[in-house]
Design a protein that fits this description.
This protein is α+β, with helices and mostly antiparallel strands. It has one domain: Deoxyribonuclease I, Chain A, CATH 3.60.10. Helices cover 16% and strands 19% of the residues. It contains 5 helices and 6 strands. Strand 1 and strand 2 form a beta hairpin. Helix 2 runs parallel beside helix 3. The radius of gyration is 20 Å and the shape is flat. The model has no long low-confidence stretch (mean pLDDT 90).
């Protein structure tokens, strides 16, 4: 994984979590396995979307991924480190860091000035949760992204999120978040993100999480199926609108 050496066994208080034949401080993987270990737990995809506009075609790179959740940690703190690395990759990619290369051997990520949208269930809340929060914070605050849509006045919000806490549906442990209208999952965390580039003009945004008095509530709550995966998902859709004429 970029920026990481072979994972080491660092949690040594529970011997049952250490593999047979290994000791505290040992590498988790063999050198051969580590050389072949992929960064992506699922994928990292750059999908160039060609959009016709009155002034001609524009290309927006849709950068999507679904990093592993930073939970179920083993003695090497594996998932926390991997989640951090998977998110950090996108920051490196939009900065065109030269450690990465494609199948043709071409190094670097996006070309300078490219328009992009990073999107997905990144399994990382910038304020709280089980993970290493530095990667998501660095990405949200990068000078290459539109910070108005990540940490500013155009950050996606909903009315259903706060109601989820009011009705004790969302996880009570996370009620102390200062931005309850930003959350995107029943865990009470902001895990799902749409992060546009700095050169995209944002006009509106939101989290599709209708409150009980709003249209669409039946899509997130059903008396018999509940309010999670049984009816649709335990995560909520994040959306952002752009004006491509500016």
């Amino acid at each position: 994984m970029p920026g990481e050496t072979n994972l080491k066994i660092v949690k040594c208080d529970d011997p049952t979590k250490i593999p047979t034949g290994k000791s505290c401080g040992d590498n988790w993987y063999s050198d051969e396995a580590w050389e072949q270990f992929p960064l992506s737990s699922k994928n990292h995809a750059d999908l160039p979307i060609i959009i016709p506009t009155p002034s001609g075609e524009q290309v927006i790179h849709f950068l999507v991924s679904h990093p592993t959740p930073p939970i179920w940690a083993n003695a090497a703190n594996h998932n926390v480190i991997r989640n951090h690395a998977e998110i950090e990759f996108w920051k490196d990619y939009i900065e065109s860091d030269n450690y990465m290369y494609d199948d043709k051997g071409i190094t670097g990520g996006l070309a300078a000035g490219s328009k992009f949208v990073i999107a997905g269930d990144l399994n990382a809340d910038p304020i709280q949760g089980d993970g290493d929060l530095t990667a998501i914070n660095d990405l949200q605050k990068s000078p290459l992204v539109n910070i108005h849509a990540t940490i500013g006045s155009q950050t996606p919000t909903s009315k259903g999120g706060p109601e989820c806490f009011d009705l004790d549906i969302c996880t009570g442990d996370n009620k102390n978040t200062p931005y309850i209208d930003h959350i995107t999952s029943k865990s009470g965390l902001r895990l799902d993100h749409v992060i546009p580039s700095e050169n995209l003009t944002v006009t509106d945004s939101g989290v599709f999480w209708p409150a009980s008095n709003e249209d669409g509530y039946h899509l997130v709550y059903d008396k018999e199926l509940g309010n999670s995966k049984g009816v649709s998902s335990d995560h909520r859709l994040v959306w952002v609108d752009f004006d491509l004429t500016k």
